[in-house]
Amino acid sequence: AAPYQVRITYLPGDLDIYVNGVLVIDSLAVDLGVIGAIDGQGTAYTGFTSRSGGAYESHDVTKWSLVSGPPASAATPLKITAYSIAPATGALSMTWNSTTGKTYRITASADLAAWTTSLKTGIAAAAGGTTTATTTFVPGAVKFFRIEEE
Q1: Taking Cα atoms as reference points, which of 5, 9, 10, 18 lies closest to residue 78?
Q2: pTM beyond 0.90
Q3: With CB atoms counted within 10 Å of each terminal CB, which end of the chain scores lower, N or C?
């Protein structure tokens, strides 16, 4: 599988984590100074750890960089702002922040690993930065949904 791209931004009191450009942890209230993770000069260690829950698994860091200072400006992360799911009828409506000129798709997964079920593709971003789309799914066959930029 292709490597994951992870970006972590931290300002005292605010931690954000992005996986493949999707904001997965937003504004977590963490102050490294309060928990003793920063020394008197304001520096801290950066490192990696991984777990497999007792099973064997390979965890490879193939490339990384550490940049200090404020985070570089980036595109607004993709974030679902509202949704409606009717499991019995298979009706789905999702609203997310979008970027003019981009297209999106709604995908589904039964296990959070394989996102191969495309429910709707070619969704053009609406003017104003917020897009809403509705679609259907097979009741009982799908448990998880997400928006992807095409």
Answers
A1: 18
A2: no
A3: N
Structure tokens at 14: 């605010």
Closest CA to 12 of 28, 30, 35, 26: 30
- What b/e readout covers 63-95, taking b as 16+ CB neighbours within 10 angstroms? eeeeeeeeeeeeeeebeeeeeeeeeeebebebb
Cα-based torsion angle of the residue sequence 25, 134, 87, 119 in order, rounded to the nearest 10 degrees: -80
Which residue is associated with the tokens 């930029």?
149
CA 66, CA 16: separation in Å to the nearest integer? 15
What is the rounded (10 degree) CA torsion for 61, 65, 70, 71? -60
Residue-wise pLDDT tens digits, 50-84: 777 777 777 777 888 777 766 665 556 688 999 99
Provide the 8-state DSSP code for 78: B
